[in-house]
Amino acid sequence: MSSFPLAGRRVYVAGHRGMVGRALVRRLEREPCTLLTATRAELDLTRQAAVEAWMRAERPDLVVIAAAEVGGILANASRPVDFLERNLLIEINLIRAAAETGVRRLLFLGSSCIYPRDCPQPIREDALLSGPLEPTNQWYAIAKIAGLKLCQAYRRQHGLAYVTAMPTNLYGPFDNFDPAGSHVVPGLLRRMHEAKLRGDAAVAIWGTGRPRRELLHVDDLADACVLLLQRYDDELPVNVGCGEDLTIAELAALVRAAVGFAGELVFDPSKPDGTPRKLLDVSRLRALGWRPRVPLEEGLRATYAWFREHAADGV
Ligand code: GDP
After folding, report:
1. Which contacts qualify for 305-308: CB closer than 8 Å, 24 or more apart?
2. What is the residue-level pLDDT of the chain in tens, covering all 315 positions?
3. Mutate to test the pocket of ligand 1, among 70, 73, 169, 175 (most ligand atoms within 8 A of CB)
4. How far is CA 297 from each of CA 22, 71, 172, 257, 301, rounded to the nearest angstrom?
5. Could you report the per-residue pLDDT of 229-266, keeping only the tens digit for each?
């Protein structure tokens, strides 16, 4: 088992204004390291020269790539260029600049949607590229697979400790609650909240309600990342999940309880279901001794409380 203590290190979190990046910053603030961040105005991650200059000036020891163009099932389908091109640029620029400026250790975050659509479940890390992708998020998936491969290539050719983690579906504070771009949890929290305020009798749930998803609170992901940064050094990606899934219908019922919406849930099969099931095999992560801490009901209640507090800010 390798060990890379964080004490005294300069850790750059790329993408610190997103849901994952903010959770990483909150978690890393508890470690004895120096955090480095740059806003979009300070550093455009799609510009190679700017990224390299910033890295040369700031000299991080470790880099975590949480910066990405992300979105739910409809956003992916409607903005394929953004999902493919921006993600490729961001990851190539960051990984290359890290290597050129002597960063020895890097954690690249992918997503469970990089795995083939019809994988045996739970999905093991070695299922990567064993079959066709889910078409609704292929743009994002291809970009993330390229990022993972680039990390593997730098390991092989330059001996750098660049590793990849594949989180399952995430939720939590600072998620995107915009109905056009959101994932299922923020999408449903907002719709049911608004339906409750209006006193609606029913709320629409996209798809058939039958797909299954595994959901992890973003604070649990951040905690797993801090462990991986210090202890993991292998070419295979590491899945990060809780190891349990549920149907969208079951999830919608939990969201209804968290929001306190009394109306009916009506399924809308004219909207896409996406991948039928996406449960990660998390035995590699468990073997490192890691366990998630936030139960789903509790996480949904906390995320709803956060949304109500920030809804006025236009989240
Ligand atoms: P995915 O895991 O990449 O498919 O991402 P999503 O979180 O966007 O969707 C997960 C599942 O939830 C899909 O089957 C959607 O059809 C379903 N779903 C139900 N209601 C909603 C909603 O309001 N927003 C989103 N994004 N998905 C929803």
Report:
1. 306/172, 306/173, 307/177, 307/186, 307/189, 307/190, 307/193, 308/193
2. 568 899 999 999 999 999 999 999 999 999 999 999 999 999 999 999 999 999 999 999 999 999 999 887 788 888 999 999 999 999 999 999 999 999 999 999 999 989 999 899 999 999 999 999 988 889 999 999 999 999 999 999 999 999 999 999 999 999 999 988 889 999 999 999 999 999 999 999 999 999 999 999 999 999 999 999 999 999 999 999 999 999 999 999 999 999 999 999 999 999 999 889 999 999 999 999 999 999 999 999 999 999 999 975 666
3. 73
4. 22, 23, 12, 9, 6
5. 999 999 999 999 999 999 999 999 999 999 999 999 99
Token output for 276? 């039928």
- The ligand 1 site (C-beta within 6 Å) comprises 72-73, 113, 137, 169, 182-184, 187-188, 191, 205-207, 211, 213, 248, 271-275
Say how many Å lie between the CA of residue 273 and the centre of ligand 1.
Answer: 7
- Minimum-distance ligand 1 atom for the alpha carbon of 73: 8
140 is catalytic: yes
Nearest Cα residue to 152 out of 144, 143, 160: 160
Measure 272 CA to ligand 1 centroid, in angstroms.
8
Distances (CA, A) of 211 to 128, 205, 239: 21, 12, 20
Query: Could you tell me the end-to-end alpha-carbon distance of the chain, in angstroms, rounded to an integer?
Result: 41
Residue type at position 2:
S
Name the residue of 78, 111, 184 whose CB sits within 8 Å of the most ligand 1 atoms, as the mutation to test its pocket.
184
pTM: 0.96
Of 140, 162, 232, 304, the active-site residue reads 140
CA–CA gap between residue 221 and residue 203 (Å, rounded): 30
CA gap 99, 71 in Å, rounded: 29
Atom 15 in ligand 1: residue holding the nearest Cα: 273
